[in-house]
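Exercise: predict the structure of this protein bound to zinc ion.
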Amino acid sequence: MTAMVMTACTGQKAEKVEATQDNFNYVVDQFADLQILRYRVPGFESLSLKQKQLLYHLSEAALMGRDILFDQNCRYNLPIRRALEAVYTGYKGDRTDPQFVALETYLKRVWFANGIHHHYAEDKFVPGFTPEFFQTCISQVGASALPLREGQTVEQFVAEISPVIFDPAVMAKRTVQSGDVDLIRASANNYYGEGVTQVEVEDFYARMKAGKDTISPISYGLNSRLVKENGKLVEKVWKVGGLYSSAIEKIVSELQKATAFAENDAQKSIIGKLIEYYQSGDLKIFDAYSILWVEDTASDVDFVNGFIETYGDPLGMKASWESTVNFINKEATKRTKVISDNAQWFEDHSPVDKRFKKEKVKGVSAKVITVSNLPNADWIRRDHGSKSVTIENITEAYDKASQGNGFNDEFVWSDKEREGLKKYGFITDNLHTDLHECLGHGSGKLLPDTDPDALKAYSSTLEEARADLFGLYYLGDAKLVELGLVPDAEAYKAEYYKYIMNGLMTQLVRIEQGKNVEEAHMRNRQLIAKWVYEKGKADNVIELKQRDGKTYVVVNDYAKLRELFGTLLAEVQRIKSEGDFSAGKKLVEEYAVKVDPALHAEVLERYAKLNLAPYKGFVNPVMKEVKNDKGDVTDIVLDYTEGYTDQMLRYSKVYSFLPSYNE
Ligand code: ZN
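Solution:
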């Protein structure tokens, strides 16, 4: 398999990560619950110079926006990061002092999570150093190196920033997704200005949507912060000349350079549209760009750059900035072509109600490559198909590594399941991702009167569940054997077992004792696993068995399990198609959120003994231009030697354009 990930700018998406001890020279750093890995980019050398230059400028554009996500996640993230970086580089005391080591760990976590909240659990980090130590460090640094507000003294700065770091009650959670609180006011993120309430936001966008096109609706609110000015709500749009302008101008400038190296006219116009969108902030242009992007299946180089995913906003409207760059893995892509060529067959044979099926599934294309995601707007998926991707090099590394680290020995019921995972796990895991991305998200349709935002805070979890269920259901279908995608009719059982074990038990290793499940993908997995466990109880489909005081998942009836996936898929599709908010809410609240504290404690204890870091991050290879004496670029080379701290400090120095306070 060839590796395809080029630049994961923020680099820190650890969505589908298995525990691993892949300890040869891939491991760069380890701290808290994180292990930082280096990844390779095989195939880069054999690209043309033009393609390499395109990748270079797109990767530069990816780095230019790094600060945006920090500021979106919380308005204090940039000042805190900058203050800590100043302390870290200027510290004069003993660097082995436990207080300093704790500060260093805290800073590394802030870099990884793009802010002061855990990237998955969304809770604020608990610093291992004292406010007094922080105060001492800050006074060593001196005013000129600190992100002070205009006219602010160092003392005032410390007084402002300290509660944000140290007081657990202040800005406790990045995104509050459920409960009876005001989700906007309870969330520490920065998508809405101070004092803006959930009711005000909902009213504001309801009014904006009223009477507008519902066939191809604009993603209202996607690229702005909603703030109150003189008692009136106004959108501060993220664009050239608007909010985040100083970073967006740099992105645009790199995109302009990239245009010269575009592989074809279609790609040239995609980049051009994106520039136009960044310059205007016009969401109609964003949709036009998204359509061009989805339709381009000819280019080898691909990228995502912009405000795409809305998981960070409790109301699912505001998008966080992200960027990834990649090129195609041609070999593995053939597999997804087989899937997309048969898209209509899958749509026609799915267990959902006929009224919710698409008569015609269009243009489903798929590439094996990268972390990038689908555009959000439902109508783009419906009318223009979807474009999807897999990071095969990364999944393979995880899969290989996870064989030898003791994880499966600890949690998997018997050798039979372990052998299945070894034999089929990599194939079926990739295939599940392909089915999820290529077919799952793009399948089904809304009834004509259904508001696409009807499921509100529950929409992300239910959408992921829908796509996962589509994939799970078809993994066990004889059609996959017929298409040559799996070697035999037994293969799917490996993914079924892993999915249920993960959803019922092992994903809990990523959650602190006493906390509930918050993140949408994790909620989705627990929702599915718990639902089929409960509904299959009468037939003993899945059991939680005890052995030597430990709990194990045992799947007794894989065929019945598949039927249950089909039943739940039909129900989740109905909820989406009809916009049945109360049924969606019930499903999520009943199955996806709550954790059994005793089982949680057991899993954490067993996992702790394995000494594995539950999350993985990556250091990017450094791309360098090689020039001749006339100054022409003659090659682009990759350097794999940079460490994590060095890379983060360099990014903060070279690619940091936003003011500390973006208000
Ligand atoms: Zn998905």
